[in-house]
Write a structure and sequence with these properties.
By secondary structure, the protein is α/β, with parallel strands linked by helices. A 6-stranded mixed sheet has the order 6-7-8-3-9-10, sandwiched between helices. Strand 9 and strand 10 form a beta hairpin. The longest helix has 53 residues. The radius of gyration is 35 Å and the shape is elongated. The protein starts with a helix and ends with a helix.
Amino acid sequence: MTTPAAPRKSLRRLGSLLQFSFGLVWSAARAPFVGLVALQIVSAVALAGQVLAVQLTLSVILDAKAREQGLLPFVFPVVLLALLTALTAVAGSLQASLGRYVGESVAQSMWGQILEMATGVGLRRFESTDFYDRLERMRSNALSRPFQVTNGVLAVIGATAASIGVGITIVALNPLLLPLLLIGGVPMLLTSRRESRLEFRFNVEQTQRIRLRTYIALLLTARDEAKEVRAFGLQRFLTHRFSRMYDTYRSDLARHVRRRSTLNVLGNLGAALVLALTLLALMWLIAVGQIGIAGAGAAIVAIRLLASQIQSLTGGVQTIFESGLFLDDVHEFVTGEQDEQSRGPVRDVPEFASLDLDDVRFTYPGRPEPALDGVDIHLEAGEVVALVGENGSGKTTLAKIMAGLYPPDSGTVEWNGTDVSAFDQSRLRSQIAVIFQDFVRYAFTAEENIGLGRADEPVDIEKIRAAAREAGADDFLAALPDGYRTPLSRLFDGGHEISGGQWQRVAIARAYYRQAPLVILDEPSSALDPRSEHDLFTSLRATLQGRTALFVSHRFSTVRSADRIYVLDAGKVVEHGTHDELMARQGLYAELFSLQADAYLRS
């Protein structure tokens, strides 16, 4: 009962796959693609013409009267054969060049989809290993597989056209030969489908292992990791682990290749057997006088060409099927993530007045304990609010939720009393400037590093310098060899390195340049010396000029002047109030503040 449904399902899948691939290629490189199709047809006609030219040439050779006339009778068939051979070669060369261009065009188009998906997907997805595995497969397959499918279709079109042309000539010679040759493609079709499934399964199984191996290679070759690898003498350990993983991969690959090769050999042996039977049938037809010598010569050429075209046809079908398995995975992933991003209404974000978290809970995927457990926090416009706690208390997670980067598992985050899920998330995030403790050090110029705070707007160098002055970065940036035009990395020509503390000031300047009404500073002073840290916080209120700030820190001495201090412990707000109120309460804040103060005094 289910047998008829399977072919229909396969045909529907194939139709969807072809539509996706053709649509992508058509939008990426329409004119070159049309050229490729035209070249396929030209090649098919030229191949069929070569068979006729061979027959004409052999007829002249065997015609005694023609031979008596010298070279003249040979000119037309020989020139025709030469021209058709040249035309086939030129068409093949042009196809290779156009194919390369179309391939790059498709790759660019797919990169656009990958980058749009990867930058638009919710940050929480990056906590899932399954997401990383599928993202890796997408990076590996999405760039080439759509064009491979299209190449497979072009091969099928070209092989079909050529097969029809050559097949007509074979039928003209003797109809018995054609069905034998067509049967020769069946073994290859049967084995190629099995090969494709094996290839897809092997790639899925190896995805995470390849990611780990690539990561170890990065540790051994990356610039930032180089110092620690050498300081701890990790070269031998990491190299040995890399080699061991590669050995395991090669062992798995050898097993996989043996299975594919076995199937391929069986398919080709089946095709060769049918070809041998066809040639034997040709010999029999010659022996009984049904085909002349000239016809026999042409038939041999035609049989060889048609066998080659049938192999191209089955190869194209295999390419379509194999790439289709990967593209199904890619297409499902991209559309699934796009659906995830497109959910929810879109509303403009009103001017900031307050931000409230009510009973917010959040747990990272794969972890049993919650990172946040029933958190309540209130911020009002113009306030400087501090969030303190020991390492692992949930401060950074809370900062990400307040920045709109993580949705809470439960509870609400309200902007001016409205749940933030009601707003367009990109517009909401444009109203918030965030400095993370692990901020990115972009290998761009100083001007670009700060200008990224408002990347969608034209660069305003005066405002960039003003933000740098507010963050205490203007003096050392202006003193660079090319001033603000100096790249802040030696990765590129003319680059210059700056210290960790200076980088932190550049990151702070980037946040100030954003001119957002809400600024979240997550451990923004971890690389600053105590004096610089104190100056940063004491000047924060004046620098913000009425904007709201959430200052996250584990150094209690820097947040004394905050309007309100929230104390986190194990994902919960255990205390909140001013510094004096919390010290008078003699709770966790007072305990930790005293411990840190005593440590400074003893040192």
